[in-house]
Amino acid sequence: MRPYIYITRKLPADIVQVLHDHYEVGMWDKEDVPVPKDVLLKEVKRADALLTMLSDKIDSEVLEASERLKVVANFAVGFNNIDIKAATERGIAVCNTPDVLTDTTADLTFSLLLATARRIVEAAEYIKKDLWKGSSPLFFAGHDIHHKTIGIVGMGRIGETVAKRATGFDMNILYHNRTRKLEAERELGVQYSPFNDLVKQSDFIVCLTPLTDETENLFTREVFQQMKPSAIFVNVSRGPVVDEKALYQALVEGEIAGAGLDVFEVEPINASHPLLQLSNVVAIPHIGSSTIDTRITMMNLCIDNIMQVLAGKEPKTIVNKDWQTVIK
């Protein structure tokens, strides 16, 4: 009997053809709707491999329902949707897609910073509504980026790449991370800063930290109140890193100038969400890595990882390095 692979979101036929050539393949038939939990529980029961999205919760219930699962290939760098401990205990390899989306996400991060600072979305909507009848000295005046201070919270691969982009704008670059990045300090001229100092000194605070127990609700009302009134906050990491009610209050009260958001506490976000009612918020639907080239590369990496594990080999990008293959 050929191994069975279940894919939790509809992918292009030409991408998954290589799997059809070697395995039995099942796939959820919708591109933008998560697979229902009951369907996932049914499919995982006979699956040898799962190709999952960040929005799929692969918890202990799902893992316990599996009878021969060997690998979960997550279509993302993050893996907070997967119970890593439970997977490792069952000898299930968990794979992700690091590196391949670094530049793409850094580009998006800086685009969001620029769009928020220069009020691009607000101005574009203004002209589309045929409201442009004239100008004034401060007509849609935004904030300069060049020569300003950017504070990067989370100096991983993407953070370092954002810092490279910032050097092109002659920015003063601060960063906060669990560990010092001495090589980045030497090569990019970035400066390590304690978290509280960074939020006080920065004109732009960019959040790129992973979601952990320590970083959940890292950005509270107290933190926003420490920022400059002219500061702009950008989040391209995970929604729960931010207390959204606190962010809303900070924006309404003028404690910060604006926010650029690619991620939210609950996704997809509803159009009635209070943050979406504010003109000084630029909100986009979690598209940090969404270019055709990068997404196809991510798909292929997931497929490569699955094929490696099912062939009894080490996958290219493993999260739980202490996993052991278990024959079920």
UniProtKB/TrEMBL annotation:
Group of enzyme by EC: oxidoreductase
Single annotated GO MF: glyoxylate reductase (NADPH) activity
Enzyme nomenclature, EC number: 1.1.1.79
Keywords: Oxidoreductase
Keyword Cytoplasm applies: no
Keyword Oxidoreductase carried by entry: yes
Domain of life: Bacteria
InterPro entries found in the cross-reference section: D-isomer_2-hydroxyacid_DH, D-isomer_2_OHA_DH_cat_dom, D-isomer_DH_CS, D-isomer_DH_CS1, D-isomer_DH_NAD-bd, NAD(P)-bd_dom_sf
D-isomer specific 2-hydroxyacid dehydrogenase NAD-binding domain ranges (all copies): 110-288
GO cellular component, one term: cytosol
Domain D-isomer specific 2-hydroxyacid dehydrogenase catalytic residues, every copy: 5-320
Pfam families named among the record's database cross-references: 2-Hacid_dh (PF00389), 2-Hacid_dh_C (PF02826)
Family designation: Belongs to the D-isomer specific 2-hydroxyacid dehydrogenase family.
Protein name per Swiss-Prot or TrEMBL: Glyoxylate/hydroxypyruvate reductase B
Organism: Pseudoneobacillus rhizosphaerae
Gene: ghrB_2
